[in-house]
Amino acid sequence: MPGLSGLVLLGLCLNLHTCRALPNKLPDLSTEPPARFSRPDPLDYWLDEELGGGGGRSGNGTERCGSCEPDLCPETRGCRAGLVLDSCGCCKECGNLEGQACDPGPRSGYYGLCGTGLRCQTDPRPAGGGEGGGGGEDEEEEVCVCEQQEAVCGSDGVTYTNMCQFREAAFSRPELKTRGRGPCRTVPIIKVPPHSQVNGTGSSLVFLCEVFAFPMALVEWRKEGRDVVLPGDDPHISVQSRGGPLKFELSSWLQIEGAEPQDSGTYRCIARNNLGSVSASAVLGVLGADELSSYLANSVSEMKQLIDATDYDQDFY
């Protein structure tokens, strides 16, 4: 049936012609006029990365900016590090705080610009991974670092590590003023006191005491009932101290190796400078195997009773 075959062939040709013609009728979105000024959408960053566009804000972000109309800029509030220009160089946005990731240079690209008194540089803190842990450029991160690293004494008697931390605190407390450069002179303050603990015979135990003071404090350890500064002549007790973790702080450790029941008692951390002294104490209990087992069983029982007595009849969403 040549007539039927001809009709089928003609139909296929018409369909093929239509399919080829349709794409030519679709609008060319790339020629659409740019919209009025608007801030880049974070979704665009993701699309750029997924579609191989290089990530971030397409270069310096100006490709999506259009004309600048300041009246259309969003209102900014709560900017503790001050205001900076956005990626389009038109609107103001919150500057990044100390320690936050940032874009180097004068133009915001992806992370944003550092706020007042801050500069973008490689993170001065040591990278993780330990020694020889495969360090490289991947682990380096540029963050906002305060330009004025000198400590500041506030009118509230608090020492701020640098001027940027002071500005951040003063943002929500306009009455706060600087009393002077350098740390506030103060009696020692025990920021982390030693904690009481119970353990078994033969265990290794450590007490920690962290102190802030200016002038720097001298820290010593004593055990109640013994008129001697530890470690004394006791070979299984040692004391170590070093500066930190923050400026004008001192961390001190009392360590007992191979603890015995006679080591039980109250241990006191004493910090002093020429303005005064302060102390904090903790109790140590060293128990034999049977006593420790009984103690742990009682602790678990008390905790279970506490949980059972707690009212959990609440709705959680």
Automatic annotation (TrEMBL):
Residues 144-186 form the Kazal-like domain. Keywords: Disulfide bond, Immunoglobulin domain, Secreted, Signal. Residues 1-21 form the signal peptide. InterPro entries: Growth_fac_rcpt_cys_sf, Ig-like_dom, Ig-like_dom_sf, Ig-like_fold, Ig_I-set, Ig_sub, Ig_sub2, IGFBP-like. GO terms for biological process: regulation of cell growth; regulation of signal transduction. Residues 61-147 form the IGFBP N-terminal domain. GO terms for molecular function: insulin-like growth factor binding. Residues 188-285 form the Ig-like domain. It is found in: Secreted. GO terms for cellular component: extracellular space. It holds the Pfam family IGFBP. PANTHER family: INSULIN-LIKE GROWTH FACTOR BINDING PROTEIN-RELATED, KAZAL-TYPE SERINE PEPTIDASE INHIBITOR DOMAIN 3. This is Kazal-type serine peptidase inhibitor domain 3. It comes from Sparus aurata (Gilthead sea bream).
